[in-house]
Amino acid sequence: MSLLGSFDIGATGLTAQAMRLNVISSNIANVDSVSGPDGRAYRARQVVFSALPSTNAAGSGVAVTEIRESREPFRREYRPGHPKADAAGYVDMPNVNPVEEMVNMISAQRSYQMNIEAMNVSRQLMLKTLDLGK
Amino acid sequence: MNAVPKYDSLVFHEAALKLRTRRQEILANNLANSDTPGYKARDIDFAKTLENELAGKSRFPNSIPLALTHQAHIAIKPSMEDPGLLYRVPNQPSMDGNTVDGDIELSQFTKNSVFTEAALTFLGGTIRSRLSAITGQAS
Predict the structure, then answer these.
(1) Which of A25, A48, A57, B39 has a CA between 20 and 30 Å from the CA of residue B59?
(2) Is the pLDDT of residue B3 over 70?
């Protein structure tokens, strides 16, 4: 049934946006992490969205297909006393841009709200369909 | 204008309701893909599609299967691409090639849901009036 379909599509949107928010939180939390499991500074991560192939020509939502690391160069800070400083006294800091992350977060929030709104409307219509003929 | 409606109201509102819920799904898909790079917003021409549906025309005119007259013939899967599913013309280009405008989609979605509710009300009214005609008493 179609209305249930639009419910599922909304759910895929919520899942994808929630994953995007997770990644943003991780980036913000690691804004000062100079070393990770590989011994290097943290690299900002980004989700990659792609539209799911449609089974019924209307489409069936969105999915996160990949989480990619940013290729931007590390932020170099001059801190000669730092334990991770190189010979010249520079430390590689994560390439997380806090402004970008905050803007991304607002965008994710709006998209999440939009999907919730659509699902609420579908729910009301489904309830109304149950009352048909009464 | 005809005094007698062209289609039975039960048939008409059922077709309208079916199409409304389909459009609801298409618009929900647009909303879910509002951040997908390269995604193009889709929509249908409601009036035209409803007219086709009521006239009994197939939604997939290219889906007639090939006749297989020999065992070595290979069956081709008919195209599932709906020709009535159009692309929305964007009024503000976006860097990543996405043409979903959240405001337009949400307003269309809300409008569509109001019309769906109207179709449900009409259909309910028709059912109620037929029931009262059958039972001979107001329900």
Answers:
(1) B39
(2) no
A57 vs B contacts (CB less than 8 Å): 80-82, 85
Question: What 3-state class would DSSP assign to A75?
Answer: strand
Identity of the residue numbered A61: G
Interval A83-109: pLDDT, tens: 888 899 999 999 999 999 999 999 999
For residues A24 and A102, the answer to whether their CB atoms sit within 8 Å is: no
Residue A62 at interface with chain B, using a CB cutoff of 8 Å: yes
Q: Parallel, antiparallel, or unpaired for β B85-87 and B42-44?
A: antiparallel
**Phi, psi torsion values for A91, nearest 5 degrees:** -115, 135
The interface pTM score, or ipTM, of the predicted complex is 0.73
Identity of the residue in B24, B42, B106 whose CB atom sits nearest the CB atom of A59: B42
pLDDT at position A37: 86
Q: Is A68 on the interface with B (CB under 8 A)?
A: no
**pLDDT for residue A52:** 86
CA–CA dist A94, A76 (Å, integer): 9
Render pLDDT for B99-113 as a digit per residue (tens, 0 to 9). Answer: 999 889 999 999 999
- CB-CB neighbors (< 8 A) of B24 in chain A: 2-3, 6, 122, 125
Contact flag B25-A6 (C-beta cutoff 8 Å): yes
Q: Enumerate the H helices of chain A as residue ranges.
A: 2-29, 98-130
